[in-house]
Amino acid sequence: TRRAMTLKSLLRALVNMPPHYRYLCISHLIGWTAFLSNMLFFTDFMGQIVYRGDPYSAHNSTEFLIYERGVEVGCWGLCINSVFSSLYSYFQKVLVSYIGLKGLYFTGYLLFGLGTGFIGLFPNVYSTLVLCSLFGVMSSTLYTVPFNLITEYHREEEKERQQAPGGDPDNSVRGKGMDCATLTCMVQLAQILVGGGLGFLVNTAGTVVVVVITASAVALIGCCFVALFVRYVD
């Protein structure tokens, strides 16, 4: 019989999951925290920092109109992100045969961390729009690689059960759906962390530049984490 998934069972899965599953969830949380930190304030960053507009000036003033133009261009940057995310997802099948899942995971975090860092340090309209393509690499990575790893973990465990003496291949304690749901919960947790902490950082620093710098720093930390702690099946 199949057991229904409840909040209690989901929390139990989080607490009792094997270490390599837990590390994968942590890396997913770090990645989404970095990605959402950038996405949440990106159009505001374009309007205030790249275009040097002022959202607090009078609505008929030049400064406010410049800010609106920056927000509009920022929306085009997010569109570039979506297009490159689709393209990169298509080519991932080819890339994974050369660099593996570890290479894909590491590359996604690294490119995003470097890209957002350059945007924060050198805010320029054209370079920022070009670097928006790296956002797409990160989003594609977050939507695919961790779930591929979950599949690899389960495939490995299934082989071990089949090879074990008296093993029953149908008697699985952990379910793939439960692990995928637990992994997806990291997205919601990242939203809570970003929503609760990023506004405070912006108010403390007095500038939205801190947004992309934070995104870059968190992504580079995640880059080290996926290289050192996440387990990859050979």
TrEMBL record:
It is found in: Membrane. It is a multi-pass membrane protein. The keyword Oxidoreductase does not apply. Its main location: membrane. It comes from Homo sapiens. InterPro entries: MFS_trans_sf. This is Solute carrier family 45 member 2. The chain crosses the membrane at residues 21-51, 71-91, 103-122, 128-151, 180-202, 208-230. GO terms for cellular component: membrane. SUPFAM superfamilies: MFS general substrate transporter. The keyword Glycosyltransferase does not apply. Signal peptide: none annotated. Keywords: Membrane, Transmembrane, Transmembrane helix, Transport.
